[in-house]
Amino acid sequence: MATLFAANWKMHHGPEQAATFARAFKELTFPEPDRSIWFFPPAVSIRTLANELGERPDVAIGAQDVHWEPKGAYTGALSIPLAQEAGATVALVGHSERRHLFGENDEETGRKVTALLEGGMRPLLCVGELVDQRERGETEAVVRRQLDAGLAGVMEHDLERLVIAYEPVWAIGTGKNATPDDAASVHAFIRSLVVERGGPEDITLLYGGSVKPGNVLSLLAEDEIDGVLVGGASLTPESWTEIVGLGGGGGAAD
Ligand code: PGA
């Protein structure tokens, strides 16, 4: 299975910076059959990246969040058809910043996942526990609850279109990351829950939280970890191409 590298740019890189990044990225990398690269730029830069990187068979462009309604009076929200028109084919759902800074609840993540699948886009559902939940030994209970809600409306045959990212909230943007062992054991738990629901054993599971060039190899060395979701270290072409080059079998062109 191809290793998946996902870049979450959060609230960075407008259209001009995105175009500059894309041009550098194209010079520094070439498509590898065993590697997929997904970019989640701010909504205003989706079209630019889709135009710049449209020729790359290894690249997909995504939205950082979508609304489940296809249109209507939802000021500030991005619908699935609008994201698709701009060039997005994938979308993040339930990122911890949406859950904890914007108050998105479990039920809303479920609606978004279902709407994305119905609309022909692939969801990347994010789950993960807060530090106090980990300290109380609740990691599995939290992840189970988030998955139950996120997957509530998903038909069995659609589970293979989903990607799930495990991102312990205490590891995001903090420089702390779960040990590869810790991450792998939560991944194994997530995989077992997907299989329990009739999904495929080989569903793609990403790890996210302070991934950088210095730790990506040890994470990807775990069989359970099929790729990474990267915030801070995806923001410069140098750091990002180093990550995808290290993990993808040496993709950097000379
Ligand atoms: P980080 O962010 O790599 O900066 O920790 C990861 C994420 O939020 O997806």
Chart the SSEs and their pairings.
Elements: E1 3-8, H1 15-28, E2 35-40, H2 46-53, E3 59-63, H3 80-86, E4 90-93, H4 96-101, H5 106-119, E5 122-127, H6 131-135, H7 139-150, E6 163-166, H8 180-196, E7 204-208, H9 216-220, E8 227-230, H10 237-247
Parallel strand pairs: 1-2, 1-8, 2-3, 3-4, 4-5, 5-6, 6-7, 7-8
Helix pairs in contact: 1-2, 1-10, 5-7, 7-8
Summarize the structure in short.
By secondary structure, this protein is α/β, with parallel strands linked by helices.
Order of helices and strands: EHEHEHEHHEHHEHEHEH
Note the main sheet. Answer: 8 strands, parallel, barrel
Q: Portion of residues in helices?
A: 25-40%
- What separation lies between the terminal Cα atoms? 26 Å
Strands, total number: 8
Measured by DSSP, the beta-strand proportion falls in: 15-25%
- Which blocks of ≥5 consecutive residues have pLDDT under 50? 249-254
Bound molecules: 2-phosphoglycolic acid
- Per DSSP, the total helix count is 10
Compute the gyration radius: what is it?
17 Å
Mean pLDDT value: 94
- Basic shape: globular
**In terms of quaternary structure, what is this?**
single chain
Q: Quickly give the structural class.
A: alpha/beta
Task: Give the strand order, joined by hyphens, for the main sheet.
Answer: 1-2-3-4-5-6-7-8
